[in-house]
Amino acid sequence: MINKYALFVNFEVIMSCSFDFHLVDENATVAMGNKLAAIIEQGAVIYLHGDLGAGKTTFTRGIVQGFGHTGKVKSPTYTLVEPYELVRGNVYHFDLYRLGDPEELEFMGIRDYFSETATCIVEWPEKGGEFIPVPDLNATLSYVGDERKIVINSASERGVAIVEKLNNR
């Protein structure tokens, strides 16, 4: 389903759109991450929203595997960031759930991770405050009975292009 509305970014009007999909199980969540990985290009910033256990790390596993990673994908809950250096480019998975103060991100050099040569996925982005850049995509995972639902909203021109490709696949 496509929802479009105007979004003002840097005084430009950008069309925003969304993609939503029901995920029947863990495999479907990983597959959706793979699908997104096939579309996104390096430099994308993805915020993940959802309750504990909603599937944010599972979805990230699909993205990281879609970029070519064959090993385990673990949650960086205690390390803040899990780096993946892959042939297609670097992917950095952040989990800010246990972050005590957003300034800790400045001390760890978080700004160095965000570049046009890396894809950054951020769980619990609201805890990062002004220390993390605005996203291209906001992905929200939620419970629907025993299943999950994902809604992906664009938040930039790059995000609009990604969501339009998702909707056309």
UniProtKB/TrEMBL annotation:
Pfam families (UniProt xref): TsaE
Keywords in alphabetical order: ATP-binding, Cytoplasm, Magnesium, Metal-binding, Nucleotide-binding, tRNA processing
Gene3D superfamilies xrefs: P-loop containing nucleotide triphosphate hydrolases
One biological process term in Gene Ontology: tRNA threonylcarbamoyladenosine modification
Protein location: Cytoplasm
Primary subcellular site in the record, as a coarse category: cytoplasm
One MF term in the entry's GO annotations: metal ion binding
GO cellular component terms, semicolon-separated: cytoplasm
NCBIfam families xref list: T6A_YjeE
Entry similarity comment: Belongs to the TsaE family.
Record protein name field: tRNA threonylcarbamoyladenosine biosynthesis protein TsaE
Native source organism of the sequence: Pseudoalteromonas tetraodonis GFC
